[in-house]
Amino acid sequence: MKIEIRGFIVHKKYLDSAQQQQQLSALRKVISQVPLFCPNTPYDKPMSVKMTSAGRYGWFSDRKGYCYIRRHPSGQNWPDIPESILRVWSKLVDVKKKPDCCLINFYGKDARMGMHQDRDEADFSWPVLSISLGDDCLFRMGNSTRGGSTESLWLQSGDVVLMSGDARLKYHGVDRIRFGSSRLLPKGGRINLTLRVVD
Ligand code: SIN
Ligand code: MN
Questions:
Q1: How does DSSP assign 28-89, residue by residue?
Q2: Ligand 1 pocket test: which of 47, 192, 195, 196 has the largest number of ligand atoms within 8 Å of its C-beta?
């Protein structure tokens, strides 16, 4: 089922449980090479999500700001984006141009993501594709400028959100997760994958 809210296109239950499991096993391999870390922020407040990346670039944040970096903080190269994840991009976005960053965010019990725009990329005509795995989360969608009215939707494991066109630069965030609502991750929690074309 496909729904559209404020230009955000939400493909509910896009991935079946076998596809989710396949992505999860590929992600476990990635995370064993480039472990999840807790980024700091320009406000000197550590993010509540843990993250790592795959692809040519990894998204990074510290006291100096947000940027894309070529290697994991350990010095390790980012592993390739797993095929099972790239396939979703090819089906929903474009087969000729591949994303060059897959940001992997892990949400534990009390993790959240404040309202923000994705704007560290060179060309906003390329969409951002986001995949949800594991526990449900309350996803909030706003406007092209900060503030104003918002609408929220529970995202579940296997849901895919496409931010393109008007929605590409809209504010969005995650208020909370429903810890333990999915059995995909045996110890609970949520993984969000964000695929982006960086340059
Ligand atoms: C993000 O926009 O950075 C994450 C969105 C999500 O976790 O669904
Ligand atoms: Mn975002």
A1: HHHHHHS--B----TTS---SSEEEEESS-EEEEETTEEEEESB-TTSPBPPPPPHHHHHHH
A2: 192
pTM for the structure as a whole: 0.98
User: Probe ligand 1: pick from 14, 60, 120, 130, max atoms within 8 Å of CB?
Assistant: 130
Residues with CB under 5 A from ligand 2 (ion): 118
Residue reference for tokens 């900060």? 146
Nearest protein CA to atom 2 of ligand 1, as residue: 173
**Which residues lie with the beta carbon below 6 Å from any ligand 1 atom?**
105, 113, 130, 139, 172, 174, 192, 194
Please report, in tens digits, the pLDDT of each residue of the chain (199 residues total): 999 999 999 999 999 999 999 999 999 999 999 999 999 999 999 999 999 999 999 999 999 999 999 999 999 999 999 999 999 999 999 888 999 999 999 999 999 999 999 999 999 999 999 999 999 999 999 999 999 999 999 999 999 999 999 999 999 999 999 999 999 999 999 999 999 999 9
Handedness of CA 134, 181, 1, 126 (dihedral sign): negative
Residue 156's SS3 state is coil
Q: How far does residue 168's CA lie from ligand 2's centre (Å)?
A: 10
Neighbours of 108 (CB within 10 A): 15
